[in-house]
Amino acid sequence: MTPPIIRHRSGPPATPPNNDNRNALILAVAVHLLLLVALILGVNWRTEAPGPVEVQLWADGNSPVAPPPTPQPEQPKPQPKPEPQPEPEKAPEPPPPPPPPPPPPPEPEAQPKTEEVDPEIAIQEAKKKREQEEKAREAAEAKEKARLEEERKQAELKEKKRLEQERQAAEKAAAEKAAAAKAAADKAAAEKAAAEKAAADKAAAEKKAKDDAAKKAAAEKAATEKAAAEKAAADKAAAAKAAAEKAAAEKAAAEKAAAAKKAAADKALKDAFRNDALGAAGIPGGTADRNQAGGGRDNGYAAKVRACILPGVAYQPPPRNGSANPTAQYRVQLGTDGKVNGVNLTQSSGNPAFDRAVETGIRRCNPFPKPSTGGYDKFIDVVHKMYD
C-alpha cells in the first residue's frame, strides 16, 4: 500500500479552512440580532412622565373601598428564535374544496363596564412593567451573549481539536512515510549489497576459473614442451649416437679403404717398378693402351697412371662373390699440359656407384703423370677393375 504523500513546509502549519463554522456563526449572530431588534421595537421606551390625567370617581356612600389592583403576572422572557431550518419540499396540494356557505353574523356582545383605575396605581404599574421588561431584556441579552460566547468557545475548542487531529494525522502519515522510505532504502541497500556481493563472487569465480585454466594450460604446455624436449634430446642423442657410430663406421671403412688403396697403390707401384725393370708387356688390372692417333706407351707409364687414379677412387667393394670382377673403362681427353679435359664412359661395370667412383678418381688425377717421352697423348683409355 502506498503511503499518503505529505508535503512539509518550513513555516507554521496553515489553518485549514473553516467556512462551515464561520457561516453557521454568522447565521446565528444575524438571527439573534433580528430577535434583539424585534424586542427593542416591541417595548415602549418612553420615560417621560405622562401629562395630567383627569379621573372622576363616582361612588355611593355605601360602596366599600376598592380592592387593590391585581398584580399583573410576569411576562415570560422572550426565547431566542431557533435557527431557520430548510423547509422540506412541499407535496403537491390537492385541489381546494368548495368554500362553505358564510356563517351568520355574530350577535353584538355587550361591552363590559370599564372599571375606573387610580392614576397613581396605573403609573406605578406601567413603571414596574417597564422595569420588568428592561430586566427581562437585559437578562435576554446577557443570556444571548453568554450563549454566543459559549458557542464561540465550543467552536474554538472544536477547531483546536480538529487542528490537533490533523496535526497528529499529519505526524502519523509523515512517520509512516519516513518508516516506509527507510524500509525501502534499507531494502534497496540490502539488494544493492547482495547484487554487489553476487557480482564480486561471480568475478572471483570467473577469475579463479580463468587462473586455473591458465595454470592448467601452462602446466600442460610445460609438460608437452618437456616431453618434446626430452624426446628431441633423446632423438638428438640417438641421432648423435647413430651419427657417431656411422662416422666411426665410415671412418673405419675409409681408413680400411685408404689402407687397402694404399696397399694396392704400393703394390701397383712395386709392380710398375718391377715391370719397368723386367720390360714386361702389361699390368693386370690397369693399362694405358696404345693410342691409335699418338703412338703407344709402355707398361711402366700405365702403372704410374694406375697409381695416380687409385687413391681417388672412394669405393668400398663388397665381398667378392665368385670369379666376377666388374670393370669400368673410360676414355680420358688430356690437354698438352696433362690436365683432364673430358672423361667419357666407354664400358660400364654394371655398378653405377663403382663407375662414378672410378670417374672421380680419374678427375682427381690431375694432371696425369708425365710420360717418359715428354709429350701427352690426346686420348688415353683407362681400364679399372673392382678386384685387383
Automatic annotation (TrEMBL):
Start-end of Pro residues biased regions: 65-85, 93-109
Pfam families named in the record: TonB_2
Transmembrane residue ranges: 24-45
A single GO molecular function term of this UniProt record: toxin transmembrane transporter activity
Domain TonB C-terminal, first and last residues per copy: 300-388
Basic and acidic residues bias spans: 125-175, 184-234, 243-254
InterPro entries, alphabetized: Tol-Pal_TolA, TonB/TolA_C, TonB_C
Domain of life of the source: Bacteria
Record keyword Coiled coil present: no
Keywords: Membrane, Transmembrane, Transmembrane helix
Residue segments, region Disordered: 58-257
Annotated membrane topology: Single-pass membrane protein
Example of a GO biological process term: bacteriocin transport
PROSITE patterns: TONB_CTD
GO cellular component: membrane
Cell location: Membrane
Keyword Kinase: no
UniProt xrefs under NCBIfam families: tolA_full, tonB_Cterm
Protein name as annotated: Cell envelope integrity protein TolA
Natural source organism: Achromobacter spanius
Gene coding for it: tolA
